[in-house]
Design a protein that fits this description.
Elements (H helix, E strand, L loop, with lengths): L8 H27 L3 H9 L5 H9 L10
């Protein structure tokens, strides 16, 4: 089994960046789903680790306009 010290530096940096990206996206999606009282989304986001795909899908599908338009 290969240890981390034998891996190339760029591969370690890439792994750290991917882990940080996944963590940030997951936390944002969990926070927004909790604020919107969407229990099913919250549970799915908390259980499934999809390397940032599920949180991005949730954020794209449930984005709200920052400034509502006056009608």
């Amino acid at each position: 089994m290969e240890s981390l010290s034998n891996l190339p530096l760029w591969l370690i940096i890439l792994g750290v960046i991917l882990v940080l990206f996944d963590s940030v996206m997951k936390l944002i999606a969990l926070w927004k789903s909790a604020r919107n009282n969407q229990l099913a989304w919250f549970i799915c986001l908390a259980i499934f680790n999809t390397v940032g795909i599920l949180p991005i899908v949730y954020l794209v599908l449930n984005k709200q306009k920052a400034f509502p338009q006056d009608d």
